Amino acid sequence: VNYPLVQVNGIDTLTCYNQSIDLDVQTDSNTLYSILWTSPDLDDFEYSEVYSILVNIPSSYQVEVLNPLNGCKTIELIEVEGDLNAPELIDIEGGKLTCLMDNVWLEPSIVGSGNYAYSWSSTTGNILSPLTDSVILVDLAASYNLQVQNVENGCTTEAAYELEEDTQIPNAQLEDSYVLNCHQPILELDLSLDERIEALWFNASGTIIGTGAELIVFDEQGDYTIELLDTSNGCRSESSVELIDHNFKSMEIEVLQPICSDPYGSIAINEVIGSVEPLIYSINEMVSPNQQTDFDFLDSGDYLIEVEDKYGCKLSQEATVKPLPQLDLGS
Predict the structure, then answer these.
(1) Which residues contact 113 (CB under 8 A, 6 or more apart)?
(2) What pLDDT is recorded for position 87?
(3) What are 195-225's pLDDT values in tens digits?
(4) What is the pLDDT of residue 330?
(5) How far apart are CA 117 and CA 3, in angstroms?
(6) How far apart are the C-alpha atoms of 33 and 63, rounded to whole Å?
(7) Would you state the pLDDT for residue 145?
(8) pTM score, whole prediction
(9) What is d(CA 138, CA 92) in angstroms, rounded to the nearest whole number?
């Protein structure tokens, strides 16, 4: 009894390099054998009357070669193995760009060990390391893409890392200048900053006059500086504030008493210190026309001199015009 002599060629391992193989039957005769391909593991896998099939799934395959002349047949079982495991990428470890950290290392975490090839890319980022390094240094907030290939089988895994940035500068949100006057004799600033913000206040000579972001009180004119530090990202800022004292300080008046040749007195406002124009002058609650600072033709008596500035603040001073002395000629 002569059974067909059968040889199956093309048996190989399926990989990502070699994703399909051609199984080819060779026989010992020119007889036209009947061929049937099946698989004990794959449903609905059946090909007949073909000597060659293309497979792309690791499995067991069976070929049955029948000699129609004598009914003898040969059955061959072929094991097609596969190495299709891609690198198992767990995560990409990195950090966050801050004022203290202007570049970050990105490092992939892969299950197990192997012969891997790395390929990094980014559309808007900046990679400082060679693109084929396993760990790279970057310095721009962006999306970074990684492809890891198992060199042994050509299978790849891809992942992305979104590098974030926290470089926000702390802001004290202060005005450039503040004014002290009768309505606001002191300046109270409550910055109400986040607890992660540290603050230092300095006067013009560089001396620390306050710490923290709590309420601070100013009562002297001058230039002040606040330095802020965000302890969460290391970002710093510096802001300057000018405190202007517009409180009235003093008023200098001159009283000219009556004399024989001029029986009326006069009061002149020579200087007002600490005022902010325009000023309104008044005597005994009577406003001086045209902002005149001289009050003439005054009878003897007590007078209240008052100055009011642009803020509505007032400074007053009393003055007395004495009666003209009477000449006693005797009897």
Answers:
(1) none
(2) 93
(3) 899 999 999 999 988 887 667 888 888 999 9
(4) 62
(5) 50
(6) 12
(7) 97
(8) 0.69
(9) 13
Residue whose entry in the numeric block shows the structure tokens 């969460």:
232
In Å, what is the CA distance from 102 to each residue of 170, 258, 261? Answer: 17, 81, 86
